[in-house]
Amino acid sequence: MLSLVALVSLIILILDNGVLGFLRFSKDGSKGHFDITEEAVLETTLQVCIDVANTEGQNVIPPPKPLTTESVAQACSSSGSESFHRAKGDMKWKNVNVDIIHFFNPEYHFDNEEFVRGKKVITDGLAVVKYKLKQGNLEDAREKLGSIMHTVQDFYSHSNWIELGNKLPHLSLIRSDLSFGNVADKSTPTCQSCVDDDCHNNILQNILRDNILITGYFGQKSKPMGKCSHGGLADLTSRIEPTGGINKDDLKSSHGFLHATATDVAKAATRQLLEDVRSFAGDRTFLRMMGISRRSKAMCFVIDTSVSMSEDIAEVKRVASVIIDSRRGTANEPSYYILIPFNDPDFGPLTKTTDPDIFKAQINSLTAGGGGDFPEMSLSGLQLALTSAPPSSEIFLFTDAVAKDTYLAGTVLALIEQHKSVVHFLLTGSFGERRRRSGEPDQASQMGVLDPQLYRNLAQASGGLAIQVTKAQLPEATSIISDSTSSNLVTLLQAVRNHGKADHFSFLVDESVTNVTMYVTGSFPSFTLISPSGVSQSHRVVSGSLATVKTVGNLNTVKMIKQVGLWAIRMDSSEPYHLKVVGKSVINFLFDFVEETQGPDLGLSILNTRPTSASNTTMMITVTGSDSLEVTEVVLVESSGAQEVNGSVEPLGGRSFLVRMGRVPVGDYWVRLSGVNSSRVRAAPIIYRRQSSTRVRISDFTVMAVVTCNSDLSPEEPLSVFFTVSTNGMGGHITIQATNDRGFTSSFPTSLLLEAGTSAKGTALFTASTNTPMGSDVTLIVEVTAPGPADSPALQRDC
């Protein structure tokens, strides 16, 4: 059966009609929303770092302009630039997505003289940002902040603020206690007709003389008599008297001669918005929201607390204590400490803190008890971890039992893909031998849960390891926790073979890589390591000239002695295995699948579903760690086979690259990137290669959800979620399951008819309970099971 999952938390409305504001990306000398946001974030973040350093008696030498992500991260003494890239990208994508989601909502663009409603978008949004910051939800706060930036920036392109001679931002935009001042009413004429280059002086003189604030009208078939239009090909009102427009979206716009001034003031206004958030949050929290931290990854434990886990819990306490005490005040100190216990029927509560002593106290308070019927609520605990931990976290789940809540497998897999987090399973005891309570049905046997294959599948999808050891061996296996939570961890190679056979692999170690470690999980795998110089070492050699090998349970850990160059691994196993090679390096990459839309600029938006085999596959790649990195090759590598799909690479500036793959066959893939680093003076460029930790899925099916009302969910008022399931393959009757993570009342069709090569549509209704606190988040999940071969879920990401 084919399972598809839609995760919805905000409005999703995909349109294809150009833009309503500044260009999304720079073009022909014009600046877009990406550029304005990028510059404002870099400048503000650097200033905060300088101010923090000054209060600590330190001195920060500002990097040369133009500022870059790498130079600002280095000036801020951040543990790396990857999280800064990710945070900045979150805000930029949420910014440009406003043009897609709210294309026909004029208040989001200050069109149609919607001053009151436009300002409300900003001030209400700013209130949400501050509420999220107060809750400690930094990821949601910065995403909401990015969407507000769009409306703030559009004000300076769509109004006559610049034409009135203003060189500074309008302070009232972000202040609910201030009014706009002298604004035009609906009956006041504002423009005279103009054509193309004659539009420089189309605003009526009395409007300018009396300092009256106006905006253009957009997109409608009619407008009030005498009003200005936005202008441009997509604006139908610009053909109605008075013709022409006043927007300053780019240099070729109706008022493009003021484009540079508008972007400068829009950037200043964006900085003003950021400073307001900084003032509320405080410098340290603001920097963490921006991905600037002197700490490493989050340390996240999901722990089975059932009665048989006493030894395991004691080991978790020991490991956590060692890591906390050894990393205090260092670059490897975790950015967050997250703890989620589970057994049956309970899971939680969640502990998420930056204070190691609070975390220690919570872990030390754990006790083992209950859970005597074998399966536990492990996936419920893991789901909570995935929605609570920062993106790209490393999560460690400890259990000696299989999952009772297997119905969450599709949702958990979708969350892994969405957040690109790595999940390691530390499995102890003999699975299937723990006995049920007397007199109860043998649930384990009925569900086929004697084999922890589900855990292996989830681990492999995330790029994590499913480690099976005895309880006595667990202390030997927990070194994986310390290794995996260190800063600047990169993946050099990853492969899964579900049917053991002889195979060869290679990986490249460049000069920036240290601490190279190979992990192999499987039953008695045979392997030979071959160095760049041709020297080989068998897995039977525990301590050799190339590496030291340690085996515990099904985990083989190979700590390698560094040699720069191309290494080879010869594998020979009759059983399935998972191979992963990691190292430490500042050079890494981020990726997202995107879709190209029609419009006057390069129209890119984050793909809200998994890529399908029926359409061209396009990716946005951002390399991190140096301003001298180039990308020469991007390949999708089949995770459990030898198939590779090459893409064409197009530089976009700012260490970002557009990769077009064409159509990719259905399957699971790792993303592999190769490139050069030309930062060294008078020396040959360094060749580097990296691979993604989490794998991606190309599917024949997609599921898309569309929320048609405001993203605010009011108690006792149903929220409609329209979803569409499309297929390029076979059809048939599909079953629907709609859930949410807060237990809200829901109704939905239980089945739909899907014809081959077509789409099927359905609607789910959700109603919030009356006692839901204001500002609460809810994740709506629509799961679709359709006829076809076994497959993993397709994901509809939130917008």
Description:
With 799 residues, this protein is an alpha+beta fold. The protein has five domains: 2-9 and 700-796, Immunoglobulin-like; 33-289, no CATH class; 297-437 and 444-486, 3-Layer(aba) Sandwich (Rossmann fold), CATH 3.40.50; 491-581, Sandwich (Jelly Rolls); 611-698, Sandwich (Immunoglobulin-like). Strands 17, 18, 19, 20, 21, 22, 23, 24 and 25 form a nine-stranded antiparallel beta sheet that branches. Strands 4-3-2-5-6-7 form a six-stranded mixed beta sheet, with helices on both faces. Strand 2 (299-304), helix 9 (310-327) and strand 3 form a beta-alpha-beta unit. Helix 3 (82-101) packs across helix 5 and helix 4 (115-135) packs antiparallel against helix 5 (138-158). The radius of gyration is 28 Å and the shape is globular. Residues 1-20, 432-450, 707-711 and 789-799 have low confidence and may be disordered.
Please give a handful of descriptors for the protein shown.
799 residues, alpha+beta, Immunoglobulin-like, Rossmann fold, 5 domains, 9-stranded antiparallel sheet, 6-stranded mixed sheet, 16 helices, 25% helix, 27% strand, globular, disordered N terminus, disordered C terminus
Helix content: 25-40%
Q: Tally of extended strands? A: 33
Q: Which consecutive residue ranges, at least 5 long each, have pLDDT under 50?
A: 1-20, 432-450, 707-711, 789-799
Strand percentage, roughly?
Answer: 25-35%
The total of helices stands at 16
Main sheet, how many strands, which sense, barrel? 9 strands, antiparallel
Shape: globular
Q: What structural category arises from helix and sheet content?
A: alpha+beta
Average pLDDT:
84
End-to-end distance = 28 Å
User: What's the domain count?
Assistant: 5
